[in-house]
Specification:
4-stranded antiparallel β-sheet, mainly beta, globular
Amino acid sequence: MALYIDGTADDGTIWVEQPVNVSRVRTVTVDVYSQQESFNRMSQVAFFAGKKPRSGLEESDFDREKDIEDHSGWKTYSYSVDDLSGTVTLAIGMNVVWETGVRRYFDDIRLVTE
């Protein structure tokens, strides 16, 4: 999945979402590609798993703690969903921090049961 967000005016978050049954799932992983490692924090993985708010998801609902530019090439990011059960909304995307346009690639989203 290729995500692009134009953050030249400010920060923002872009994502895809779908309902997922996580009853037997312990962890969700996603591979993210960064063209180059940088000490500048430009973008972050945006992750959400849980009950979707009535008004819909917004930037503050996401876990945005993991910087994307901390590596070069592909890296797997992992998120625990041990405390959830049943069908929840799973949303994965990108938050832009730096005021620039950012394109990142996401692949191989996995629901890990062990």
